[in-house]
Amino acid sequence: MSTLVPDGPSKGTITLVHLYPREMSIYGDLGNTRALASRVRRHGYTAEVHDHHPGADFRDDAHLLLGGGGQDSGQARVEADLDVIGPALRSMARDGVPMLMICGMYQLFGRSFHTVGGQVLPGLGILDVTTRGNDKRMIGPVCLDTEFGRVVGYENHSGSTVLGDGQEPFGRVLSGQGNNGEDRTEGARSHHVIGSYLHGPLLPANPMVSDALIAVAAERATGRPFEPADLDDPLADEARGRQVRRLVG
Ligand code: GLN
């Protein structure tokens, strides 16, 4: 467990849990957890970060959950534990706990993942999406329109994901492949659960997504509305702005 304490008096303690950092954290996805914890601190709250490993007790009192990408083999290694903590995750999702699941964990938050090797990994069904592995990988920079504004990131997946009827995407693809390279959808969002293929990691370049997650988590943690600090993000804004200009003009 690590704790980040704000400079002034703390407005409250927000508990973040990162699921399976050993098995599911490729392409720097651990950076999402670091960016969130640091932003929680900069907003004047204390961030308590816990790693959840297979077989360990699960913190079902977490205010915010994160998960990253992984190889098909990493996904298979966490299946048994996901089965154990699945009921808690489903009930937390229903209850409105904010969650950000990237790539491999996004696929496992869906209904099922059919790997290119013919394995079927059952998902949690928190997001109404189904994924099938392909021979072709979808790789490259991505730009999306989302309800949080323009979001940029980088995708690298062979899984092709289809949304169920009525399932909201995370965003609309302006450049890149997204869920399947065909329907211009990217990721999925239900209530406060976001699934996305975007690495980068996603949050450092898109702090407005961090703030949306933190706002909900802060309210759950303190019972009071989120009290944001007035933060400046010149580097993130420049990084995102450059990628948007390069990809969509
Ligand atoms: N194994 C999955 C795929 O390639 C997930 C990859 C990832 O998490 N980057 O579709």
TrEMBL record:
<comment type="subunit">
    <text>Forms a heterodimer with MurT.</text>
</comment>
<keyword id="KW-0133">Cell shape</keyword>
<dbReference type="GO" id="GO:0009236">
    <property type="term" value="P:cobalamin biosynthetic process"/>
</dbReference>
<dbReference type="GO" id="GO:0009252">
    <property type="term" value="P:peptidoglycan biosynthetic process"/>
</dbReference>
<feature type="domain" description="CobB/CobQ-like glutamine amidotransferase">
    <location>
        <begin position="16"/>
        <end position="206"/>
    </location>
</feature>
<dbReference type="Pfam" id="PF07685">
    <property type="entry name" value="GATase_3"/>
</dbReference>
<keyword id="KW-0573">Peptidoglycan synthesis</keyword>
<protein>
    <recommendedName>
        <fullName>Lipid II isoglutaminyl synthase (glutamine-hydrolyzing) subunit GatD</fullName>
        <ecNumber>6.3.5.13</ecNumber>
        <ecNumber>3.5.1.2</ecNumber>
    </recommendedName>
</protein>
<dbReference type="GO" id="GO:0071555">
    <property type="term" value="P:cell wall organization"/>
</dbReference>
<dbReference type="GO" id="GO:0004359">
    <property type="term" value="F:glutaminase activity"/>
</dbReference>
<feature type="binding site">
    <location>
        <position position="137"/>
    </location>
    <ligand>
        <name>substrate</name>
    </ligand>
</feature>
<comment type="function">
    <text>The lipid II isoglutaminyl synthase complex catalyzes the formation of alpha-D-isoglutamine in the cell wall lipid II stem peptide. The GatD subunit catalyzes the hydrolysis of glutamine to glutamate and ammonia. The resulting ammonia molecule is channeled to the active site of MurT.</text>
</comment>
<feature type="active site" description="Nucleophile">
    <location>
        <position position="103"/>
    </location>
</feature>
<dbReference type="InterPro" id="IPR043702">
    <property type="entry name" value="Lipid_II_synth_GatD"/>
</dbReference>
<keyword id="KW-0961">Cell wall biogenesis/degradation</keyword>
<keyword id="KW-0315">Glutamine amidotransferase</keyword>
<dbReference type="GO" id="GO:0008360">
    <property type="term" value="P:regulation of cell shape"/>
</dbReference>
<keyword id="KW-0436">Ligase</keyword>
<comment type="similarity">
    <text>Belongs to the CobB/CobQ family. GatD subfamily.</text>
</comment>
<comment type="pathway">
    <text>Cell wall biogenesis; peptidoglycan biosynthesis.</text>
</comment>
<keyword id="KW-0378">Hydrolase</keyword>
<dbReference type="InterPro" id="IPR011698">
    <property type="entry name" value="GATase_3"/>
</dbReference>
<dbReference type="InterPro" id="IPR029062">
    <property type="entry name" value="Class_I_gatase-like"/>
</dbReference>
<dbReference type="InterPro" id="IPR033949">
    <property type="entry name" value="CobQ_GATase1"/>
</dbReference>
<dbReference type="GO" id="GO:0140282">
    <property type="term" value="F:carbon-nitrogen ligase activity on lipid II"/>
</dbReference>
<feature type="active site">
    <location>
        <position position="199"/>
    </location>
</feature>
